[in-house]
Amino acid sequence: MYFLAGDIGGTNGHVALMRAAGDGRPGGIETLAYRVFPCASFPSLAALLQAFIASEVHTPVSRCVLACAGQPMGDEVVNDNLAWPVRSDVLRATLGLDEVALLNDFEALAYAIEGPLAASGRHLCGPLVRGQGPSLVVGPGTGLGAAMHVPGSPHAAVFATEAGQMDFAPHSLRERKVLAWLAPDGGYVPVERIVSGPGLLTVYEALCALDGEVPSLETPRAVTAAAAAQADAHAVEAVELFCAALGGFTGNLAMTTMPTGGIFLAGGFLSSMFDLLARSAFEERFLHGRSVRALLAQVPVWVTEHGCHGVQGAAHWYLRHRATSDAREGAHA
Ligand SMILES: Nc1ncnc2c1ncn2[C@@H]1O[C@H](COP(=O)(O)OP(=O)(O)OP(=O)(O)O)[C@@H](O)[C@H]1O
After folding, report:
1. DSSP annotation string for 43-97
2. 0.95 surpassed by complex ipTM
3. Taking CB atoms and a 6 Å cutoff, what residues make up the pocket around ligand 1?
4. Same domain, 139 and 274
5. If both were cysteines, with which of 62, 111, 206, 324 could 316 make a disulfide (CB 3.0 to 4.6 Å apart)?
6. Are 92 and 149 found together in one domain?
């Protein structure tokens, strides 16, 4: 069976043509074509998918699975970061497909833990070997995603989250000042306002404003580049604060899930700033302190390329989901 698999974020749309062979285990899914598109270049998700179909698909395809930033609710994906509204019923009608299945993008990445994702990362901290417990995928991109993978029989269980929408918990006095700059009258500041690509730029702008300077850098990429080159003191501090906040957030998730199976840091740009992350306060903030430190020190953390793991995880989820629905229908027949 041929089908389309997409990993659709706020900035990039990864799309693949897949073929299912055998029973749909990760090893039984073949990626026949794969491309990444900038979402902002297309007026709709249907137009983006049509561009892929026109250039890469030369065989009839009637099924599609889309891992999208946000949470599917009925036919719709609920998310503030996507470039356009995403509705499976509209996509089905516009593209003439029989089925468009939706899941969360980090849920898909968590399914990819059973594929090459788990073996492909660079070790950041903690033990070198994975334990038997749950695993997490966590990743800043346009937003901040996270999902949990719990091993089990006959299948692991995967849990999507909206952890990036949790309240930002400042640690240092400087972080408290950034928080106050973001919300001068108090109120809700989700952690993804700080721990994401746009968040990194926001932190840089906040630090400049707190020191009475006019920001000169205009994109998150320019901030990490200036920090790597030690060319701008506020960029260096912004990256340091970003990495520390990512460490604190990831440690908070680890305290609630005890992921001795490991944490895989993903997202579109983290692997490109690995050296900055490795030199930062990430690990110190991840470990927190007091008695929990000894527990969190048992958790291995890797940084992985986001790449095509999202579409592969989405394909894996889709085939398992279809097998389960087919078995249920068979039992009721
Ligand atoms: N080298 C870099 N340093 C810092 N930020 C970067 C870098 N490259 C890209 N970004 C920022 O990362 C964000 C895009 O992240 P990503 O590539 O993960 O996109 P996405 O998959 O669409 O995101 P999401 O899944 O969170 O919606 C943009 O805000 C972009 O400006």
Report:
1. SSHHHHHHHHHHHH--S---EEEEEESSEEETTEEE-SSSSS--BHHHHHHHHT-
2. yes
3. 9-12, 69, 81, 105, 141-143, 145, 197-198, 200, 219-221, 224, 267-269, 272, 306
4. yes
5. 111
6. no
